[in-house]
Amino acid sequence: MGTHFRFHRARPGSGRLGRHPRRHPQELPTCGDQRVTQLPETPVAPTRTVDAVTVTGVDKTFDTRSGQVDALTGIDLTVSAGEFISLIGPSGCGKSTLMRLIADLDQPTAGTVTVFGKSAKQARLDQDYGIAFQQAGLLPWRTVAANVGLPLELHGASGRDRTARVGELLDMVGLSDFADRYPDQLSGGMQQRVAIARALAEKPDLLLMDEPFGALDEMTRERMQTELLRICAETGAAVVFVTHSIPEAVYLSDRVVVMSPRPGRIQEIVPMGLNRDPAHAEALREERAFFDGVTAVREALHTGSPVPTGARGVENR
């Protein structure tokens, strides 16, 4: 067993964590009478210094034939540059809805969403993020290389630049030998690696991932999780990751955002204290700290009581 870490479940007003927090948690003062348990950080060099995502006072209501449905209410969340967070909660709690708002695939009923200080719409137009879903969504008539290079092609990159970038990406995801294959010649895990490479084509500083490994068998899923940690370490991208799997959320994340049943609220944010150095990733699931993290998130999911208004997932300053 590895080193034992105690998990301090932080209310969502807690400070944000870096990618590789060190040991020895300490109490830091915040405004008012609140105190935040935070693990000291190992500095990293994210591509940007501005926060990757800021969600402020967001509500989302859908109009249906039977009336209005409140999908999200009072969402406040900040994701730092280079940070990996997972959204987890029961089906229908609004995880994917929140992801779609960040991606500008839908608009909030109230509140604001910014990505690297821009509106979600402007960030989409500037290709500031890549996105991957549960289904890889590859075009069956295009080769692996052509699928990966599609975003570059659509945005007018030269053939030489496309070829060079596609080569880099296929090498990153370990598929250089499959550049000329077609999607139906690949396993499910390989198809997802192609989808991740495509999402990284324009060198985004943010990845939005909605259950990208949900359709994979358990062994392939674990391999892909380890692969994703390596890719994130190489690129420095921030990640917002939707999942129903507690172990997956704990293994991947700097913080796990626990959401309540509909209407979706941020119920609790659980900071992780795991060493996600890619060289250490294979042993991570065997460590006591990993099992402690799983227990902490499970308890947060079963708490069932939302946090006080004004303390959901953003620092009190």
TrEMBL record:
Pfam families: ABC_tran
GO MF, any single term: ATP hydrolysis activity
Spans traversing the lipid bilayer: none
Region annotation (Disordered) ranges: 1-31
Biased composition (Basic residues): 1-23
InterPro entries xrefs: AAA+_ATPase (IPR003593), ABC_transporter-like_ATP-bd (IPR003439), ABC_transporter-like_CS (IPR017871), ABC_transporter_ATP-bind (IPR050166), P-loop_NTPase (IPR027417)
Superkingdom as given in the UniProt entry: Bacteria
UniProt entry keywords in alphabetical sequence: ATP-binding, Nucleotide-binding, Transport
Protein name: ABC transporter ATP-binding protein
Gene source species: Mycetocola manganoxydans
